[in-house]
Amino acid sequence: MNLQQRINAFSLLGEKLNNDKLPSSVFQKAEANNRWFVKESIDFSLNEISNMLKKENLEQWLSVYPKIKNYLIQKTIGVIMAGNIPLVGFHDFLSVLITGHKIVIKLSSKDSILLKEISKILIDIEPEFENRISFTEATLKNFDAVIATGSNNTSKYFEYYFGKYPNIIRKNRTSVAILNGNETVEDFKNLGKDIFAYYGLGCRNVSKLFVPDNYNFVPLLDALSDFEYVYTNNKYANNRDYNSSVFLLNKIKHYDNNFLILTENIGYSAPISVVYFETYSNIETVYKRLDIDNEKIQCVVSNISDKFINFGKAQSPKLNDYADNIDTLEFLLKL
After folding, report:
1. For residue 32, what is the enclosing H or E element?
2. In order along the chain (335 residues), what is the average pLDDT of each group of 10 residues?
3. Which residues, in sequence order, are CB contacts of 324 under 8 Å at separation 6+?
4. What is residue 152's predicted lDDT score, i.e. its pLDDT?
5. Cβ atoms of residues 67 and 333 within 8 Å
6. Per-position b or e across 150-170, b if 16+ CB within 10 A of its CB
7. pLDDT score of 291
């Protein structure tokens, strides 16, 4: 396969995912395996992947890597995928195969269904992918480089075992939003998408707000009422009820609209159903804080500056919005 054949195959995959989706039995298996993976979350992920795989998007993404056109080296890349949201490892899957490498995938037990089904569709489109894609449940072996995504704790394990190989090892990250008091109701509703998509389980979900001193949270909480449906998920409801009890018993000051809890905290990674906030009097202090804590943050959502992601777009990354800001394609093309 040359590069154009690979682009065409993934482009057709995107069209199929957009038009045909996946069989209903696949949705049922995925949710039975992981109750967070409801149909709406899987559909959302498939829609984002389908848009990502439009031919013009693929070609624009790859155009900044002139080396890829004549890159004929084929290595075997071991990829350890997370399982926090549906198909969270798809970008690594795409990156490895679009550069012409082989991939050996170790899936998370939490997301062990969906990528296998998508791989079958891709192989039906382009049979040459069949000997380039494999899955393993055992310890990775016979590979040339590693891409591993996990927690801060598992990253230490990854660094110990894979440190002697070329690698990308990712850790915990989360996302933040900066508010300035001039947001509209539409802004708040879009921010709700950034908070509640995938029930807040993704690294691109907003789990921390920076707000001006003496900020009035009532308009925000009122606007977020559209997202009360998250409480119908038993796992989310159990988390919310537990966290609410903890806050009440410990007399921790908080705001609660019966499905979301806001509380002041300097941390970033809030529990499910909780969003932390900090106040500021000078926006420059927020910028300095974000620079210092850069390695903890995946993306920043705000309408304050064009350099930030627009409200509602945190879970719609472009192909060059690399996890942990590590250019995966550059890494693969240097092997």
Report:
1. helix 24-33
2. 97 95 94 97 97 98 95 96 97 98 97 98 98 95 95 90 95 96 97 98 97 96 96 98 97 96 97 98 97 96 95 97 96 97
3. 168, 170, 171, 173, 295, 298
4. 87
5. yes
6. beeebbeebeeebeeebbbbb
7. 96
| Residue ranges of domains in the chain, CATH in brackets | 3-172 (3.40.605.10), 174-301 (3.40.309.10)
Q: Quick one: pLDDT at residue 216?
A: 96
Residue 179 to residue 128: CA distance in whole angstroms: 49
Q: How remote is the C-alpha of 85 from its chain's centroid?
A: 7
- What does the angle CA 69 – CA 72 – CA 78 come to, to the nearest 5 degrees? 110
Q: Which among 5, 126, 130, 1 has a CA at the least distance from the CA of 72?
A: 1
Structure-block tokens of residue 104 = 């050996």
- Rounded to whole angstroms, the Cα distance separating 295 from 132 reads 33
What does pTM read for this prediction? Answer: 0.96
DSSP string, 271-290: PTTEEEEEEES-HHHHHHHH
In three-state secondary structure terms, 35 is: coil
- pLDDT value of residue 20: 83
What number of other Cβ atoms are within 10 A of residue 264's Cβ? 14
Rounded (to 5) percent helix, strand, coil in the chain: 50, 15, 35
Closest CA to 7 of 56, 42, 70: 56
Q: State the pLDDT at residue 14.
A: 98
